[in-house]
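Note on ligand handling. Small-molecule inputs were canonicalized before submission; formal charges were left as drawn, and no protonation-state enumeration was performed. Where a ligand contained multiple stereocentres, the stereochemistry in the source SMILES was retained. For zinc ion, this procedure yielded the string shown in the input block below.
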Amino acid sequence: MLVTSKAILEASLRAHKAGRPFGVGAYNVNNMEQMQGIITAAQETRSPVIVQVSRGALKYAQDKYLVNIIQAAIELAPEIPVAVHLDHGNGMEVVQRAIDLGFTSVMIDGSLMEDGKTPSDFEYNVEVTRRVAEYAHARGVSVEGELGTLGGIEDDVGSGMTQLTDPEQAVEFVERTGVDALAISIGTSHGAYKFKGEPKIAFEIIEETRRLLPDTYLVSHGSSSVPPEHVALINRYGGKMEAARGVPLDALEKAVARGINKINVDTDIRLAATGAVRKFLAENPQEFDPRAYLKAARAAIAAEIKKRMEAFGTAGRAPEVPPWGLAEMKAAYGK
Ligand SMILES: O=C(CO)COP(=O)(O)O
Ligand SMILES: O=C[C@H](O)COP(=O)(O)O
Ligand SMILES: [Zn+2]
Ligand SMILES: [Zn+2]
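Structure output:
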């Protein structure tokens, strides 16, 4: 069933308050096999799920292909609460496009300017996020903002791109923008090379933000765990990803226990697919039917996502999600 991300994240927040927390993975989707892998994992574990679409994914799949693939998955798995979310929207235009396409949730990432590269200032972030929230809420769509910029905690904090979130500033940000969910910077970063040494997560920032903002859904970006066995598989079959390193699953479990509700995962899906395809083609050099190796990729994706649904505690939680679609939320925001 198509729901807003607010419905799914509210279930997560209520469970946290009741002392039985679970986090919800938000998995990036770009094509049919990824969508099938994600929905299969959700069905086999009875998990609610957020599928998220980046601007790059929209471009790759010309919007329509992707939207219809996601729609097919929702129709074929009516028992699973699914939210369709825009990942890292960078301005009003792409947000409007996503909402026109039927997305039930959008992220506006105002921590960077519209070019997606230049760090913005706080006032710019507040203003663009506030405008998006107003527009989206009028249509029942959930909104995620971001405060702080992602990077490695071991980088030169404050001097470069990395800017860990200040929990007190987060309170002001949420009050002034009206966002439902807030992405906080806690030392993670996007991609397969997150840490040079030991992984380090700023758990104290999660705890303090959760304490100051008890009703805001908290989001951790850059949360792929970059499983060493997938990296090893890729390297064994001709890849070159020696220094890849992610956020271990037990650190993510700790983050959920401290108050993270949404956990963004893209890289792990890519690694699972690439490892499976490399292995399959190396072992079956005579094979030339793409269905053969894409099937292997799809199965590897489903297995990897199932692992996360179990680790984050999402498994079995589908019945806890309230049936809040766009119409219900439009009425609720209107009050
Ligand atoms: O944050 C993400 C998408 O918004 C994905 O992060 P990863 O690169 O760690 O998968
Ligand atoms: O946050 C970034 C996501 O991993 C999406 O990446 P992408 O822009 O390459 O699709
Ligand atoms: Zn950002
Ligand atoms: Zn992200």
